[in-house]
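The following record pairs a protein chain with its ligand, calcium ion.
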Amino acid sequence: MKLFRFSFCVLMFSVWHGLCQAKPNVIFIFSDDHATQAISAYGSKINRTPNIDRIAREGALFEANFCTNSICGPSRASILTGKHSHKNGFKSNGNRFDPEQMTFPKLLKKVGYRTAVFGKWHLGTNPTGFDQWMVYPGQGSYYKPDYITPEGKKVIPGYSVEVTTDLALDFLSKQKKDKPFLLMCQYKAPHRNWMPGPKYLTKYDDVSIPEPETLFDDYSKRASVLGKHKMGIDAHMSFFYDLKVEGHEDKRYAKYMSSFLRRMSPEQRKAWDAAYGPKNEAFLNADLQGKDLVRWKYQRYVKDYLRCVAAVDDGVGRILKSLDKLGLSENSIVIYSSDQGFYLGEHGWYDKRWIYEESLKMPLVMRWPGQIKPGTKIKKLTQNIDFAPFFLEAAEAEIPDEIQGRSLMSLFNEPEALWRKAIYYHYYEAGGHGVPAHYGIRDERYKLVHYPKSDEWNLVDLKKDPSEMQSVHDNPEYKKVLDSMHSKLRDLQNHYDVETSR
Ligand code: CA
């Protein structure tokens, strides 16, 4: 009898343990400012990203995934809380994230997950809800990055993408499969000022990157505020800090660039000079003017950006390989995403913030063997507030009522299930890069936006005008659409409990 009881207990323990292990691990690989235009799975015309593509091929690619507020801190706060900026309190960069509030890592920890975050955090207060964390102070550095840790500051030589990947791989190698885990690996790249690592300093040297059709946008036929931006490749990029032309008379942000260069080892600095020196000399001798100069700036900018992306894709590849090697691929959800999109010369811009497609969109690819059919394409309108409830549902944890997003799970299990018809967007900053606060909605075809400062409304027909070059808000043919979009906007503002500024 005793033996039977003992065997029964062992059996029950094994069942219980097996159930615990069945909860999927979550590996959230995240970068900063990586636009879908620079991911080959999304049809990039300018680069290849074989490792990010692998996640899409073996899992799902979300074709219409958007942020709530297109800037670093606010997007991260929306991901952690599953809520819009006005509900999680982090509306603008420079705000402080309330570390006491509900976040999905805290809730995963409650249901038995081991949790860790490495890399860029950028929320003004230290991470909470993590068993292990090592994050950059502020934006972090490309070379020899500083990390804040619970034990104090650490400085690690090397290139930030590789160093952060090393931290993630070290964490993975120490998992004993006794508990499910959440790993957030968050790169600084390819954020401004786009400093490539030693491996890719000369990648793309012998090619010309295709220009976007809207590189020379004149901002006509839309709100007047567009033309007042301060994020133009032409006028607002600095020669040294942004474009790496050392010794140029343009000294904007030069002290920052000098401090970044001082972080390099002598070998790294030598490789940097060998890569940029001759190219810079040729540029200065050419004495380019007008559109030729803008075209040169575009090439230098986008190549540096893509060189940073290449390092990120390598990091993704190293993580995928490590999961295979450790036997963790089968029971893990692997995600690649970025906090918002970015302008790679579209509308003459770099940076983000505007509700325009290039920065409103976020890449999202996800692999979950046995749960997501390889090669799945999701066309429904998803948003970064949907990540938290999805992770919680996958972990069989309760989803708190205060979460505003919807779990992505039904998109895999019931593709015909009812889903939202429009997403709400709200950018609150009033000064950064000359972009005024604005808000709006985007449905499957149209986008309505209001710029309160100038009280201008724009309506765009994305089907007829995918580059968003003309507002049709005052076109009588669109009167019905305009009324319907206003009504949808009011509905969404009520739904999300938005304090309207109208
Ligand atoms: Ca960002």
